[in-house]
Design goal:
Largest sheet: 9 strands, antiparallel
Number of strands: 40
CATH superfamily of the largest domain: ATP-grasp fold, B domain
Bound molecules: adenosine-5'-diphosphate, magnesium ion
Number of helices: 18
Length: 690
């Protein structure tokens, strides 16, 4: 085994590799760009080398510099992770030339699988089934069009050098071909510097099922079962699971053997994934018999892989990814194996730890990719700071129930330089149903504030009947769009009640009083009633709280008042609103309350928590702090004209943020404090002129 390795990557995968290395007693060297100087992966390694600017081409792709760093630190091997240099055969070769072990396949295998068209020609020779198509070198547009006509529409035009779902165009009919080809070629040249394309039959409603393979340098090659990655958006994976629902023992063996044949055809060594597209396989519900136990293929019992139709299901080779895959943890969860450990062992010359029939398969695992993006705006990537990053409790890797792989900590930024993936949440259960329930629960406990994420969207996907019943195919998301986008599970009444309850609870902590249990017509701020003003997605909302003999009553807008009660349970406040009982957790960020409940999340702006008390304080024209606290920000500048109700300043008091609003139209005079300063109750915060 190596004594020291350099991890030529960042983020989640760099942390993942470091964890295994540490467990095996292998020392680790991290590398980092300017933007990543304080990153989690740097802290996760024993030492770290700065390699350059924030843009990948100035750092994570500078392979001469990376090789120098490995040599300077005495690392014996380089783990490339995924993305970046992981599928760059020149880099793999340069490592070898420098006397370093590249923890991955030989450069020749990377090259053979690097271009989709060439790899398909090779696979055809090796007898691996392919989608009917054209994979030739001749790129004459008229000839390509002729091939498309021959294949029959719809067809898919793919950039041969493509990856990450980019450079693909589906063409419905002959008349659309020329334009789609030109557009695909433009994207291919821009993204991959190579405009060669291939054409294949566009399979309708297929499933994406891939096989994890592993080969050692002694001629052994095994498959570690399959992963189903059919749930995709824009040809990119969203949820991944293992085993594939509805998979038969027989089909698994057929596909596993085809994948092994693919790997062996290129002299593969290390971890790789052979991706297949599958037609005619029904997912259905969990087979009553439960997941199969033990390994699959008796060694030496290979059938000819040309036979690729099993019980009505057809599978076709798509591509081979010559690296560790993002979704490898689901394979780890169902096999109990550590694939990074296998990578390190194989790269240091050891034989594969297990033979084919020793590879376990137990239970069901699902991974969700947590990304900084806005699903409701075409999954536009989001950047920002993880103001809140609260995670569900992880159970140990061995137990494999809930696992979180990430490369960020609370307070870290998701920058525009790198991938928008924040974390991966992986759960394991005895059955698919149990794994799904655990994933939904874990997602409800994953609270991210500071940037848009797909967390709620993922919960909507899990809730669709298609997904729950494992009717999977790559069109699931577009088909279920009505249930997935612009969905709110926490309505305004509940969100408002949650904020009011949290405000009262924080005041009670200060006052040493319990407004929720009093029945004596208690008054707050000398008032029997109190108004709260909110802003929800640009709309203003008012809520009225009445302190009565029977307890508190909350009315939203013109609606009837409902009894409100709450009690604290750990970090959560259990809310009773009318007949509803809901657990809520709330985080404040710049005057916005982020409410999380087991059902979902909501964002709501508290314009003025102390409308009446505030007005009282404004009576003499002075804008004062309603309670002792800290100034977070002024939202206006001296001289600025403001309207009644416009937020002027944000202060933090009683563990929450309060917005001070303008009592009337006017002009801002002087700001009397600076952000960060502590202020006493009643202190004047800013002067208003006019
Ligand atoms: P990438 O290198 O971008 O991962 P792939 O060839 O693996 O490209 O294809 C990505 C996705 O596109 C697949 O997971 C599948 O959903 C879809 N896809 C690829 N080929 C076909 C096809 N022939 N018919 C239908 N969908 C396809
Ligand atoms: P898969 O491994 O399933 O093929 P993708 O097709 O999404 O997954 O390819 C790997 C992706 O990982 C690439 O899109 C790349 O941008 C992204 N990536 C590369 N390095 C990192 C990293 N350190 N952290 C997160 N994502 C990364
Ligand atoms: Mg792919």
């Amino acid at each position: 085994m190596f004594k020291k390795i350099l991890i030529a990557n960042r983020g989640e995968i760099a942390c993942r590799v470091a964890a295994t290395a540490q467990r095996l007693g292998v020392r680790t060297v991290a590398m980092y760009s300017d933007a990543d100087a304080q990153a989690k992966h740097v802290a996760a390694c024993d030492e770290a080398v700065h390699i350059g600017g924030s843009a990948p081409k100035d750092s994570y792709l500078r392979w001469e510099r990376i090789i120098e760093a490995a040599q300077a630190t005495g690392a014996q091997a380089i783990h490339p992770g995924y993305g970046f240099l992981s599928e760059n055969e020149e880099f793999a070769q340069a490592c070898a030339d420098a006397g370093l072990v590249f923890i991955g396949p030989p450069p020749s295998a990377i090259q053979a699988m690097g271009l989709k068209a060439e790899s398909k020609q090779l696979m055809e020779k090796a007898g691996v089934p392919l989608v009917p198509g054209y994979h030739g070198a001749d790129q004459n547009p008229a000839m390509l069009r002729h091939e498309a006509d021959r294949i029959g529409y719809p067809v898919l035009i793919k950039a041969s050098a493509g990856g990450g779902g980019k450079g693909m165009r589906a063409v419905e009919k002959a008349g659309d071909f020329a334009e789609a080809l030109a557009s695909c070629q433009r994207e291919a040249i821009n993204s991959f510097g190579d405009d060669a394309v291939l054409i294949e039959k566009y399979v309708q409603r297929p499933r994406h099922i891939e096989i994890q393979v592993f080969a050692d340098a002694h001629g052994q090659c095994v498959y570690l079962h399959e992963r189903d990655c059919s749930v995709q958006r824009r040809h990119q994976k969203v949820l991944e699971e293992a085993p594939a629902p509805g998979m038969s023992e027989h089909l698994r063996r057929q596909m596993g053997e085809a994948a092994v044949a693919a790997a062996q055809a290129v002299g593969y060594v290390g971890a790789g994934t052979v991706e297949f597209i599958v037609e005619g396989l029904e997912g259905g519900e969990d087979p009553a018999a439960g997941p199969p136990q033990g390994g699959a293929a008796p060694a030496g019992a290979r059938e000819p892989h040309q036979r690729h139709s099993v019980g009505g299901a057809h599978f076709y080779f798509m591509e081979m990814n010559t690296r560790l895959q993002v979704e490898h943890p689901v394979t780890e969860a169902i096999t109990g194996l550590d694939l990074v450990e296998w990578q390190l062992r194989v790269a240091s010359g050891e034989p594969l730890p297990l033979t084919q029939d020793q590879i376990p398969l137990r239970g069901h695992a699902i991974e969700a990719r947590i990304c900084a993006e806005n699903p409701d705006n075409q999954f536009l990537p989001a950047t920002g700071t993880l103001q809140v990053y609260a995670k569900p409790a992880a159970t140990s890797f061995e137990a494999g129930v809930v696992r979180i792989d990430d490369g960020v900590r609370e307070g870290d930024a998701i920058s525009p330089f790198y991938d928008s993936m924040v974390a991966k949440l992986i759960v394991h259960g005895d059955t698919r149903e149990q794994a799904l329930a655990r994933l939904d629960q874990a997602l409800s406990e994953l609270h991210i504030v500071g940037l848009a994420t797909n967390v709620q969207f993922l919960r909507h996907v899990l809730a669709t009947e298609s997904f729950a019943q494992a009717r999977l195919d790559t069109a699931l998301i577009p088909r279920e769009a009505d249930r997935l986008f612009h969905q709110e599970r926490v309505g305004a009444p509940l969100a408002v009640a949650a904020v009011v309850a949290h405000v009262l609870e924080a005041e009670q902590a200060l006052a040493g009083d319990d407004p929720f249990s009093r029945r004596d017509g208690w008054r707050s701020h000398g008032l029997a009633q109190r108004r709260f003003a909110f802003d929800v997605a640009g709309e203003s909302l008012h809520a009225q709280l009445t302190y009565g003999r029977g307890g508190l009553l909350l009315a939203l807008g013109e609606e009837a008042a409902q009894p409100l009660r709450a009690e604290r349970r750990g970090h959560e406040l259990v809310l009773h609103l009318g007949a509803q009982t809901v657990r809520t957790r709330l985080y404040w960020q710049a005057g916005v309350a982020h409410v999380f409940t087991p059902q979902g999340a909501a964002r709501i702006t508290l314009v003025d928590a102390l409308a009446h008390a505030g007005e009282a304080a404004h009576e003499d024209g002075r804008l004062t702090a309603p309670m002792p606290g800290k100034i977070i920000a002024f939202l206006v500048k001296p001289g600025e004209k403001v309207t009644k109700g416009q937020p002027l300043a944000v202060m933090e008091a009683m563990k929450m943020e309060h917005t001070i609003a303008a009592p009337a139209e006017g002009q801002v005079g002087e700001l009397l404090y600076a952000p960060g300063e502590q202020v006493a109750e009643g202190a004047e915060l800013l002067k208003m002129a006019g």
